[in-house]
Design a protein that fits this description.
Structural class: alpha+beta
Number of helices: 2
Strand order of the largest sheet: 1-2
Number of strands: 2
Length: 90
């Protein structure tokens, strides 16, 4: 697999601790100047997160962006109910 963008790995939690992070997941949106321009803690708000990313990319001069949203046409997924009879906590 070829990934053409940087990916941060934080195995020792240095970034996590540097931000004094208390939430998972935590999304920090950083502009091209290295400034944190927005953040989102927890699940959800995916459309708002995408809008923030697109706005920052455009501000940085990227104008040839793909269309917003995820094209789910033709995507098939399998869903099943949880097996609650066998759920247990350690």
């Amino acid at each position: 697999m070829h990934i053409a963008y940087p990916v941060a790995l934080d195995n020792n939690y240095a970034i996590w601790q540097g931000f004094n992070n208390q939430y998972w997941p935590a999304h920090y949106f950083v502009d091209s100047q290295g400034r944190i321009r927005a953040h989102h803690f927890g699940e959800g708000s995916y459309d708002e997160s995408e809008q923030t990313i697109r706005r920052l990319l455009i501000e940085a001069g990227n104008v040839d962006l793909p269309p917003a949203g995820i094209d789910t046409a033709g995507v098939m997924a399998v869903q099943a109910a949880p097996d609650e009879a066998h759920d247990q906590s350690a």
